[in-house]
Amino acid sequence: MEQGGAPTWRRTDGGPELTVADRRLLGEALSAGERAYAPYSKYRVGAAVLCDDGSIHTGCNVENASYGLSICAERAAVFNAVSAGRKGIVAVAVVAEGPGPASPCGACRQVIAEFAPDVPVLMGNTGGMVEVATMSSLLPMGFSLKRV
Ligand code: THU
User: Which run of H or of E encompasses 58?
Assistant: First the structure.
C-alpha cells in the first residue's frame, strides 16, 4: 500500500476512467485484504461485491494449516453477500499485493458466475493498478446445469 492509506486507483489497461463507485468498491476490497489470514502463502487478497440494493459485501482469503481448506477472498465475499440475503451482484472488485492487478482463480470465477454471469470485475493491486474485465470474458463457457 502507498504511504498514507489508499492508493490512487488508475487503470492500466487503457480503458475508460474509473467511476467514484468503482473506487469505493476497490477501497472496500483493499480494506478487506488487510484482514486476510494468510500466514502460509503470505499472499493477502481482498474482495468486495456490490449488490443491486447498493450494499457491499467483502471477503478476504482465510488459510488453514491443512492448506486445501483455505478459501479465496472472492468466494468469501460472494458467500457473505448471499448469507446476508443479497444475490443480485452487479460488480466485483479484487485487490492483492503483487506487481500487477490480481486475477480471480478459476474456482472463484465459477462461483462469481453463479450469481453474476456478466458483471464488471475490477482487478487491482495494492499499488493502485487496475484492470477491468467482464465475467463472461474471464469465464467463457463456464459450467452450467442449463447445458447438461
Ligand atoms: N487467493 C485468493 O484469495 N484469490 C484468488 O483468486 C487466488 C488465490 C488466495 C488463496 C490463498 O490463500 C492465497 O491466495 C495463495 O494462493
Answer: strand 56-60
